Amino acid sequence: MDTQAAHRVAHDGGADLFGVCPFVTSQSILQGKWAILTLHHLADGPVRFNELLRRMDVAQGTLSKQLKNLEHEGLVRRTVHTDGPLRVEYELTGIGLKFRGVLDAIEACGWALKGPTATPIGKGFRSINVQLRQRFSTYANLRPVHTLPGVPTRFDNVDLVIVRENTEDLYKGIEYMVNDEMANGVKLITRPACERICRFAFDYARKNGRKKVTAVHKANIMKLTDGLFLRTFREVAVEYPDIAADDCIIDALCMKLVQKPEQFDVLVAPNLYGDIISDLCAGLVGGLGFAPSANIGDSTRIYEAVHGSAPDIAGQDKANPSAILMAFAMMLNDLGETEKAARLNAAILAQVAEGKVVTADIGGTAGTKEFTQAVIDRL
Questions:
Q1: pTM (two decimals)
Q2: Active-site residue set
Q3: Nearest 5°: CA angle at 9, between 6 and 13?
Q4: Does the pLDDT value for residue 147 go beyond 70?
Q5: Which residues are bridge partners to 284 per DSSP?
Q6: Domains contained in the chain, CATH given
């Protein structure tokens, strides 16, 4: 079911849109930078515009536009009250209320493909990605990085995998203002989480024919937190004598990655370092447009592109969709649909290698839709 069809269902008398295609609908409507937060604040009942503006800490025009979009999609209802002082309230429609069920659907199904979301810098709400990872305990973030034929880069032999701890470290979000001129954040590192992610990295290496796992840390300075991570890594490594194990300080690793990336195989890192080096490694192979990822827990897997919502080009048909397509291929593979995953990956690689219908980030003139259709035509 395509997006336009999903919209028609929404507008045809309130049909059960989510019963028809929850993920097409979510992917389409949640692209708006403020859509998820707006729906969140309307989930418990009607809210006045000014109150919504205060809660979200967003520009008035931006909120007004987002509300109009959601009203157009049939998810939000606007009511003007004239009994007494004039007031305008917004609330979720029946379909809008079902958006609360999307998270329940992810939990029930255990598998999801998620589009990019935006996080405000320096203020506003917490990262939606972080909240999803913590809610579903998707403790391992898996980010494969490899050279693609046809993508101009400095290297032609990059083939590594980043395993990032996904639930704690500074991303736990434990921070507070001590006073007006002092802020404090807690770097939470626990032995169970360290052991779990290190074991995941070694198990992944063994299962996928990888030869070496490297721990990323700053234990020379953060002797307790990163020291705990490194000690745990070394303890776990003893249980995998068939896999080589070493470690590298984070700043030295960044230098080595841009000098000789082929020396690395599997990198396992605490949350913050894993986030930073995954973007660095994406740059080695052509950019975030070619960086898929999987958030993996014991009972839930959420697949996504590494990149964010790219607000500077949003809605302009310019973004490279390869990362989300590659993430979908990862999902298919993990679901046991290996032949379909291989076909999709082959189609992406062939389209990029041909170099004719490709997006601007790799020297082409094609838009997002044109590139995607070209990949589809190869399937």
A1: 0.75
A2: 171, 218, 251, 275
A3: 155
A4: yes
A5: none
A6: 3-100 (1.10.10.10), 122-305 (3.40.718.10), 310-379 (no CATH)
